[in-house]
Design goal:
single chain; about 350 residues; 7-stranded mixed β-sheet
Length: about 350
């Protein structure tokens, strides 16, 4: 990937003259079965541009309560796009109940924000990387389209989802009007995301990218890594899922940690710990070089497997975590925690 960056052919991407950016955008659109795509700086920018291109100020976007669009994008859509989030409870599988979506759509009331879009996230980050299959996606898309609403997928880890359910990514997003995916994360590029959709929508999206300061010049150095990622990093995502299972089963065997390996469907998981000890234990484990997020009492510890992490790395991490947890409880109360 670094060689591809160094050897990339460059031009002025702002004028559509960077051949490497053009190649990536054509490749992404074809891979996802859409007419066109645009390189953006991040998934957050891609989601914002998708909404700005298809909604108007004062609209609301129906999303899951635990989605990144709702909780992880700093309220930017309200501040900059002038839209609000109509957040519904996610189903246990991470999606949205089509009947809940149908009930939430508003076209007529002058008191409620007018519904402008329906959106799903796949995989579902804050629910532990849960994967939505084609049926999950299409049931919600059908409701949106029944009401002439655009349907957007925040697919930051979309290729993880496609690998998990073992179908082509284009089939998984066939019902989406727009979809983003990250070149970083599982695909292992250093930066960048792509927004895909119809030619008309992407043309409008390019205008919004410009407004937001995301239009770049010699962006082929970013796109080259993305091209390499799409060519070489998709099929190997199954290794990350296998390593996640290995980690989840190992964590479940450590007294005091709670996790259900059967709920781990991709490369993300959350492990619950007694909150009286969670922050201190996380700090002690971090000091031993094992990096993860301690997100707080509702979600717990978040672990992610990715490129460069091997099965032996997983075993090392488990040995460290087990040792730190057992030693901590011996020192704090003279006995091991309950399993």
């Amino acid at each position: 990937m670094r060689v591809a960056i160094a050897e990339s052919e460059l031009g002025d991407a702002d004028e559509g003259e960077d051949p490497t950016v053009n190649r990536l955008e054509a490749m992404a659109a074809e891979r996802l079965g859409k007419e066109d795509s645009v390189l953006v700086t991040s998934g957050t920018q891609g989601n914002m541009v998708a909404i700005l291109s298809q909604c108007v100020r004062g609209d609301s976007v129906i999303v899951g309560r635990n989605t990144h669009i709702n909780l992880g994008e700093a309220g930017g859509l309200s501040a900059l796009a002038g839209v609000t989030m109509h957040a519904l409870e996610n189903t246990p599988d991470g999606g949205l109940d089509p009947d809940d979506v149908r009930s939430a759509i508003n076209h007529d009331s002058r008191d409620w924000p007018k519904t402008g879009m329906v959106s799903l996230e796949n995989t579902q980050n804050l629910l532990g990387g849960l994967v939505l299959d084609r049926s999950d996606v299409e049931q919600v898309a059908d409701v949106a389209h029944e009401h002439d609403l655009p349907f957007h997928i925040d697919g930051a880890r979309l290729f993880n989802a496609a690998v998990s359910v073992n179908i082509p990514v284009s089939d998984l997003v066939a019902a989406a009007d727009t979809v983003t995916f990250c070149l970083s994360k599982g695909l292992a590029a250093p930066v960048g995301s792509v927004l895909c959709g119809s030619r008309e929508t992407i043309e409008e999206a390019r205008r919004w990218v410009k407004y937001l300061g995301g239009s770049m010049r010699q962006a082929g150095i970013i796109a080259a890594a993305g091209v390499y990622a799409l060519d070489n990093m998709v099929d190997r995502l199954a290794e990350d899922h296998d390593n996640a299972q290995r980690l989840a089963k190992g964590l479940a065997a450590i007294p005091g940690l709670e996790i259900d390996p059967e709920r781990v469907q991709s490369n993300i998981m959350f492990c619950h710990v007694d909150q009286a000890h969670s922050a201190e234990l996380a700090s002690l484990i971090d000091a031993e070089g094992i990096k993860f997020y301690d997100i707080g009492p509702e979600l717990g510890w978040r672990f992610v497997t990715s490129y460069g992490i091997t099965a032996s790395d997983i075993d090392h991490a488990l040995n460290v975590i087990d040792s730190v947890v057992r030693d901590y409880h011996r020192r704090s109360n003279g006995r091991s925690p309950k399993a």
